[in-house]
Amino acid sequence: MTADVTEGAAADDGVPAAPEAPDPDEAQRAIEYCYDQGWSDGLPLVPVSKPLLEAFLATTDKDPDEIIGSLEQVGRDVTVRTAAINAGMAGCKPEYFPVVLAAFDALMRERAARGGGFQSTSGPAPLVVVNGPIRKELGFNTAGGAFGPGFRPNMTIPRAIGLMVRNALGIHPHVLEQATQGVPGRWNICIAENEEESPWEPFAENGGVPGGVSAVSATLTRTMEFVDNRHTPNPEDVLRDFQDTIGRIGSLIFPQTSVALVLCPEHAQMFAAAGLSKADVQNWLIERCGRTGREFTSMGKANVARPGFNGEYEGDEAFHRILSSPRQIPVIVAGAKNAAISMVVRIFGEWSGTAVPVGEKK
Amino acid sequence: MPNAILDPTGSVTSKAAATAAPRAHRPASLKGARVGLLINTKQNARPFLDEVGRLLEEKYDVTLTKRTKVNYAVPEPEAVIKELVADNDVIITGVGDCGSCSAAAAADGVVLESAGVPVAAIITDSFIPTADAMAALRGAPGYKYATTAHPVAVLTEDKVKERAAQVLDDVVALLTDPQTAGDA
Questions:
Q1: pTM for the whole thing?
Q2: How many angstroms separate the CA of residue B6 from the nearest CA in chain A?
Q3: Which residues contact A42 (CB under 8 A, 6 or more apart)?
Q4: CB contact under 8 A, B129 and A79
Q5: Segment A99-120 mean pLDDT
Q6: Considering only alpha carbons, which residue of chain B is nearest residue A120?
Q7: Up-side HSE of residue A67: CA atoms within 13 Å toward CB?
């Protein structure tokens, strides 16, 4: 049915839904009830009832009381049951739940998340990366708009993590959560790798799970910046563009940093066509991303850089790398093959890159 | 009867607050006390606490021990707490000037108090809500600590010393109880 409000008597009241549609007044009361309890991240929640909870729990072999993550400093745990309620409230379908569990597991393996990440003034956002057949089975967006809205699993799975942090771990804004500004879309960043158009092995394979197996990797990110370079046939020119963006000084709070390169298929394919593997791209950048001592000093980062370089760099012309291993520059391929636009994602702390297989119901 | 809406908070009471945390007994004075400085490694935390310590040495003839936190973002492990308790009569910790480290300073304070050692945690005034929330989670609602104006990390050496001198009376008041009978 097409709603045409430009003519006809229905214009004033809107077009009524089909008679079998659910009761909107009751739905609104339930949504407001959830707001009143302080459970919401600001957007409406799906009220979860026992039958919905049971549908979630039926997707996993795990015991509902199993603890799947703890934040020792606040003495709070997340159980499978609590995770399921929050995932339901976030708008996940029950069949997404194994991915939610894998994503939370992957994130909580990271020291930065178990430490003060969720309380941090940095206000970092989970970055969830999904690989394998589950991407197609659940309808993840694997193509254009990789970071953006429009697709239910991509939007609701990271939101589930945000609600778990708020409700199960008790980290509330302005109280135990002290983000100065935070990250836009803090609880909405989930990319499904574009394996079909990537010239390389799936990201999860770098994290220990072989290609073809569904797996999730996760970290915390402080922000991201695009590299738009669609005007050169020379891969080295593109790499230099990345080098400059990665080497930005404002985000450096330690002598070393960590970034994820989320390459669009066009950039990835350009590198691969030139014979570069992921490791080649990483090593090219590891060798070149950095500054001279004089630059650090002139840009006001003397105190940040000094501890890493044993105090002997000030004013010197020696070049100091800000990346030292491939682990500090993981490479992921995402987005559409329609323009050469990639993203440099700033990692909060370090990322082990560990991939967690999506559990299958036996 | 319609289905109930389920609560997503799980265990609403923190395990960390299984019992109300007691506040340690205070000495009447810091005269001759063993004072532990627990430095959280945040920028300027060391010179700040060093200066507090130096002033206490001058005024009260205290003996100082210093150690840095294992991880500024989280409370100290049990083994470290034991050592701190064994080695000190009172402890000063800080400077809590971020989301996780202000909460951790309050948590360390509450844990050490329960173990019988008075603590003065120093946090910047931007983090009062998070320190209060952490103390309440740990079973010590209303836990008292010292504050200094935010920020501390950007202060020059002289300004850090000024701040340390300004907070000194509060630190001493937090660590002592004039009602305590003693030889002071």
A1: 0.91
A2: 6
A3: none
A4: no
A5: 96
A6: B99
A7: 9
